[in-house]
Amino acid sequence: MPAKHLYFVGTAGCGKSTLTNAFQLWLSNQGYDAMTVNLDPGADSLSYAPDVDVRDWIKLSEIMAEYGLGPNGAQVAAADLLALNIKEIANVVAGYDTDYVLIDTPGQIELFTFRQSSKVVIDELSGEMAMLAFLFDPALTKHPNGYVSSLMLAATVHFRLPLPMISILSKADTLIQDDREKIGLWSKDYYALFSALLDDAIDAQTQISVEFLQALDAVGAGRPIVPVSSDSGEGMEDLYSAAQLVFEGGEDLEK
Ligand SMILES: Nc1nc2c(ncn2[C@@H]2O[C@H](COP(=O)(O)OP(=O)(O)O)[C@@H](O)[C@H]2O)c(=O)[nH]1
Ligand SMILES: [Mg+2]
Questions:
Q1: Which pTM value belongs to this model?
Q2: Residues 130, 7 contacting (CB under 8 angstroms)
Q3: Inter-axis angle of helices 190-199 and 177-188, to 10 degrees?
Q4: N or C: which end of the chain has fewer CB within 10 A?
Q5: For residue 245, how many other CB atoms are within 10 A of its CB?
Q6: Which helix (H) or strand (E) holds 133?
Q7: Residues 201-245: pLDDT tens digits?
Q8: Closest Cα partner for 235 from 71, 1, 76, 15?
Q9: Distance of alpha carbon 30 from its chain centroid, rounded?
Q10: d(Cα 217, Cα 136) in Å, to the nearest integer?
């Protein structure tokens, strides 16, 4: 059985690194073998020690000095250098005998989503058994317009990176029960989200949100969201089940 590769993707600060670590601990406690890979060359300080760390190959400070770049230019160069080094990194990862490879992606989502190099990275690193977990940031997602914005971002990521994807409501412990129920309902029922949008003052932003939502509905971008908290540990089993369903049941890779 080849290792299952799970990429954690989402906006800066949405909780990718923390969840990579928390989910590895949870899997280990359940008796599974799981390893972690940090793919973010720009990570200043990580809250955990990854098993394989791209910073052993690519250092942002060295790229800045060598090419005379500022931090943003260096991040972009690093994303492309990652593709040049990925064969070697993938060999190191493949040397681990493990069930799950948990991959922590760059803090800035555009570096992973909008660089052609990411497709090379995913191909080399993970082969067939790979999927994305897109993390919805709760602070944004609890407002109807913010939910639609997050959904558009998730749809963009899914469109760019042709892997099956599940939706995670990150940092669920920071939400009151009412907001969690609301978000859960919106993720299952677009009509509930439509009516929440229309409950707000109907300004230009709301009108655009409604139109985007209709388009997203038409392409079937929605999927039930899984609330997870790295702090309280809740939702880890649901995350595992959702991932297993994709890995074993097989969401159509072309979708
Ligand atoms: N309350 C709470 N805070 C979290 C959780 N996950 C992450 N955080 C905090 O959110 C911040 C950003 O997390 P991080 O994992 O570095 O985000 P990343 O940029 O997506 O990798 C950190 O201060 C974390 O401690 C969570 O489940 N609950
Ligand atoms: Mg991070």
A1: 0.93
A2: yes
A3: 120
A4: N
A5: 13
A6: strand 130-136
A7: 788 888 888 888 888 877 666 778 999 999 999 999 999 999 999
A8: 15
A9: 23
A10: 18
